[in-house]
Amino acid sequence: MLGSKKCEIVEWQPRGKVAFTKTFVQHYAFIMKTLKKSHESDTMSNRIVHISVQLFSNEELARQVTEECQLLDIMVTVLLYMMESCLIKSELQDEENSLHVVVNCGEALLKNNTYWPLVSDFINILSHQSVAKKFLEDHGLLVTWMNFVSFFQGMNLNKRELNEHVEFESQTYYAAFAAELEACAQPMWGLLSHCKVRETQEYTRNVVRYCLEALQDWFDAINFVDEPAPNQVTFHLPLHRYFAMFLSKAVKCQELDLDTILPDQEMLMKLMIHPLQIQASLSEIHSNMWVRNGLQIKGQAMTYVQSHFCNSMIDPDIYLLQVCASRLDPDYFISSVFERFKVVDLLTMASQHQNTVLDSEHERSMLEGALTFLVLLLSLRLHLGMTDDEILRAEMVAQLCMNDRTHSSLLDLIPENPNPKSGIIPGSLSFESVLSAVADFKAPVFEPGGSMQQGMYTPKAEVWDKEFDPVMVILRTVYRRDVQSAMDRYTAFLKQSGKFPGNPWPPYKKRTPLHPSYKGLVKLLHCKTLHIVLFTLLYKILMDHQNLSEHVLCMVLYLIELGLENSPERESDEEVESTGGQERCHDSWFPGSNLVSNMRHFINYVRVRVPETAPEVKKEPPASTSSDGLASSQSSRRKSLQRENSGTAQVFSLVAERRKKFQEIINRNTSEANQVVRPKASMKWSAPGATPQLTTAILEVKESMLSLLIKLHHKLSGKQNSYYPPWLDDVDVLIHPEIPRYSHGDGMTAVERILLKAAVQSRLNKRIIEEICRKVTPPVPPKKISSAEKKTLDKEERRQKARERQQKLLAEFASRQKSFMETAMDVESPDADTAMEIATSEQHVSEAIYDCVICGQSGPSTEDRPTGLVVLLQASSVLGQCRNSTEPKKLPTTEEEQIYPWDTCAALHDVRLTTLQRYFKDSSCLQAVSIGWEGGVYVQTCGHTLHIDCHKSYMESLRNDQVLQGFSVDKGEFTCPLCRQFANSVLPCYPGNNVERSLWQSHSNKCMRDLVQEVEDLQEQLGTFPVSISSETNLSKEMESVMKDIKSTTQKKYTDYSKSPGSPDNDFLFMYSVARTNLELELVHRGGNLCSGGASTAGKRSCLNQLFHVLAMHMRLYSIDSAYNPWRKLTQTMQDKNSELISEELPEVPVLYRDVSSLLLIQILTMPQPLHKEHFTCIVKVLFTLLYTQALAALSVKCSAEDRMAWKESGALKKNTCNGEKSWEVLLGHVVSELSKGKIYEERETEELTVVNPDSVECYLQQFCLPFLRITSLLQHHLFGGDLPSCQEDEEFTVLASCLGLLPSFQSSDEFTSASCLDWPVPAFDMISQWCSELASFADRHPDQVKALLIQEPKWDLPRLLQLPENYNTIFQYYHRKTCTVCTKVPKDPAVCLVCGTFVCLKGLCCKQQSYCECVLHSQNCGAGTGIFLLINASVIIIIRGHRFCLWGSVYLDAHGEEDRDLRRGKPLYICKERYKVLEQQWVSHTFDHINKRWGPHYNGL
């Protein structure tokens, strides 16, 4: 019923709508009953709210129903009844006799937020002014509502576990915080939004009145007198918070006089207890005193201050405490604070004390907590006078100081007013304008480690300089480490801007002036109790007592500075003089309550209670004690406060003092209560809980706060007399005390600032400071000087020595690290060991030395104990994605833009091989091409080596390691033991050093013919491979096993191209293609050409040399039948064998159809290793002649018939000139005439070259030959060392040709022609005729295929990912509703491949094939195991690599440079080109495994 109605309501006639609404309201209670019973409460809630939101959002309708149907009464009553079903007795305070009931947070009703639809409706109708007005005027409703709120007062009570750790950590606190926020705070904010003007004062009075009544009832119900029960805390005091927030509103917006709505002092004393208890408990929790309650208690402490809760919880609590503090007696308030924080016993002048309520290890952090709380209480102005804009700015600065923030996290972290109609809406203009005022935007960058940065906002320099407010930071940090982070960033700013070099202290920040209603708060800073505490702590810090810290001193100084900044009025010096100096000091600790005058007051002797073991006991009291100072303090005529003169916390007798005050106030009537300042009655003192072995000692102090501060300055600086009053040199400082040099600095700066302020405020202080500085005072009282001073000096000396030691160690470590980086990170792989290390004359080969990163030993690789390189083998189809157009393909975003993969490199190579296999002999076809464009095996290394036996034991240990790894050890995967790079195999290093040492000598002078013969002979001696295969050495075993690894890296379909499965020709083809794949990929990584020169991009991290050895060893196992050895066809003119060819089924592939780079690798890898440079050059020269002929043939097919005739004739004329064999015109003429004999040129349509002039022909020929020259140069670089020369693009051909030894002498480029590189082993025309005749005979049989199979000029662009549209919405709109081509459904998680544009179902079971989901399947077909998918509904990219996957991140960011994963924020997203480039770079360079860290197995389920 509920679901179907929802859409129709809107279109009804108004009358019908009213009728329906009334019916709905009448059934409201019933609906809620159903909801409570429902098992599917979520679905049900949504349906109810869908209806009610349409009814109650209309103000007119809501008002009508409120008036006619008592909607408000119904709602509040239903809510009340709903909660009454899950009430339990409260255990707060008085467990036995408590009459208070609270909701049970463990009940389903609260745990599942079942009450949510009701509360939501209630908040909704309260947003209408007219309805809220009714609510606030209706006393009966307010009473009921406060009754409802009191059910949450004190819920989820925590009791501190003191013995055992709690067995079961309850998670009910989630429900408790949610309930208070939603059921209490949200309606409160709703009501507050209507109390903005003077006219609404009455509403506030009503709420405050009933709130106080409810509170009074609550105190009675829990039997609360004056002390909270120990070891209990509840974070939920919604009644207190209602009271506080309405007070704040009354003063801020309604101009109400605060005192007219505040209760009496007794009530205020009660009101402050529980919020103060929470503040003390926060400190206890952070001091690990609640550790036995488990993690959930920390969770509560964090939630209480967290951004979504803080302005409904901690802020009202602190404000309420500020109100109480401003109205109560300050001595009472201060003593309550220290008592709540359990540090009263610590506040003694004695060096030892006993704390009856706190373990000593918690004392320090609790004292820090108490002082920090006081600083917060006295500094915060959130409700005491700041405007909304100032608050927003302060909040923003605090968050930005902790860390740089993204725009969305800032929006989330700034506490907004939870009621949406309150005015401060995040994202409103004020937010943006404040943000631009305080922060600079840092555009998203990509860091080298691979972590992607989002667009961040960072504080402007002037914000650090003027606005950094540590107090606000402390208030808003959820994690304590954020405070440290803010200080570290502040330190860095000061160092960078040269404002302060050392470790600064938190800066002191001026506060917004207090609103007049809260002026009483300043009294806290000017009360004797606080001054005694500050004096005692300064003294203790100076004397190095235990359990004090820099933080304590920092907070003490902060409080003193706050006091000086807020002194009540400037004292007139005369009046002070008349009180007579120190004569009357024995009367009390301090004469008055003004901090300015108390700072100079000297305190001579203090009576302390100490354990008998304390050092103070030994001293004899001075003779004068009896008459002087405090000896008479035992006499009962002293006021109790003066009795605190005896110093210890116990003698403060704070408890007695407070109890008495409390009694007095209770006994008086309220009218008098306000006049109470300090009780006069005397009282015998007894130390509560004092243990008998305490004894009284009298301590000689003779210090004032000023003298203590000056001595602290000496102590902090480590120098005698380090403080010199600045005004003695420059009187101006007293007139303009705001000097920038005091605004940032450490403890000494703070002390200087305070002394300056004290001097500015009173002439007397100035004089006393000068006097103290004149007496050269040793920094500690003379009684202890020897030992204590020695201690501090020793300490300083020890520190200095330790520092020096540390520096030395660090320097040593740095140098070690440097040498480690040089040696370990780039192991000299043999190809880098060039001949420079060895005199050129020596022909012998030095052995390469390898370091094993596991056992740490160095040595050569031997046949018995081979060393190997740590490598990662991965199948790759990157090369296959090259296209022969420079225009990148776009991701289709309309039906018309489909991508057809027919123009990719892989597709064209595939077609070529299939065509060859149709017309020629299979074994010959498999040597005429290379495979590996798709599913080729790429080998990369981190450059580290290890003994292969060490590696095996390392793998064994990984196998036994139970730790969850991100890789699969069973598949041979591991991480390099040194650099932790991902790897999956070890490539054995061939013994000896394979760099030929004669490299730098001039080229040999043997003639070409001899070299050709030598090469042929070498190829015949197949058995002469240095590692004899027959004797199974460890090395050969390892080489075989790595070859198996290489084969199993890629899928069978990428290795098997032969017509007869398992043919050895297949293996032969696969092996040299692995070499080809790695060379081609290195070329791609260099940008497609070798213009940049230099060593291999990976530098010493190349493993091609070792790879060639492994491949060569295996290729030598396959003998090539000498009759078919291509070398002969290239270097000898054969007898005409045409007669035989007819008898065979299929001929061999004509030489002109063979891929020259493949022939090069076959020749090189079937030669005995190590190869001689001269033989290498010989092979290259021979192959170049073939390549050149192929270029001419391809060119001849391209030009028109007339051009062909012209070339033929001009070539014939020049044929007999001296250099005929080195002129392209002659050779081209010859090719044309030879090919004309067949039916090659007979086809009619030809794609013609536009202009056939000599320059364009030369250019065409060079471009045709370049790819071969590049591959060959790389090969030469890896086999023989030596850097590649760098050059301009237009001279690449000449530079590479001379580097390869094709150019006899380097000529000037203007007369250079590519043909001058030719060096024919036999007369050119005979050779060309022989090659062309093969084509001619093929043309007779298959004239249609001749041209198609001619190798065309290869112009591959670098591999690219698809181009993405600027705006993400374009992609989203097209794909998120698109149907899958396989299952024709709209996928739940649509994804698109960024390599080829295929649309797939992520995790879709519909498209599963043999347990593989579609994405995994596609990653195997499209990328040989690597897939890059854009998840349409999440805007993120996911990478699949083999059996693992990872979330890469997003390449679409919003206007603030942020990702929007899962499109949760719904912001417009735009392409980030830099990120996309990085993604493409990682794909092309095969570094996904190394850069992305968070991999997990996908179990084929993606």
What does this structure look like?
With 1502 residues, the protein is α+β, with helices and mostly antiparallel strands. Helices cover 48% and strands 7% of the residues. Strands 17-16-18-19-20-23 form a six-stranded antiparallel beta sheet. Helix 52 packs across helix 53 (1292-1299). The chain starts with a helix and ends in a 5-residue tail after the last strand.
How far apart the termini lie comes to 39 Å
Alpha-beta content class: alpha+beta
Number of helices: 59
Q: Count the E strands.
A: 23
Rounded radius of gyration (Å): 44 Å
Uncertain segments are: 1-10, 419-424, 572-587, 620-653, 666-692, 778-790, 823-845, 994-1003, 1023-1030, 1137-1143
Shape: elongated
Largest sheet strand order? 17-16-18-19-20-23
The amount of beta strand, in percent, is 5-15%
Rounded mean pLDDT score: 80
Helix content: 40-55%
Q: Main beta sheet: strand number and arrangement? A: 6 strands, antiparallel
Short description:
The chain has 1502 residues and is α+β, with helices and mostly antiparallel strands. It is built from 59 helices and 23 strands.
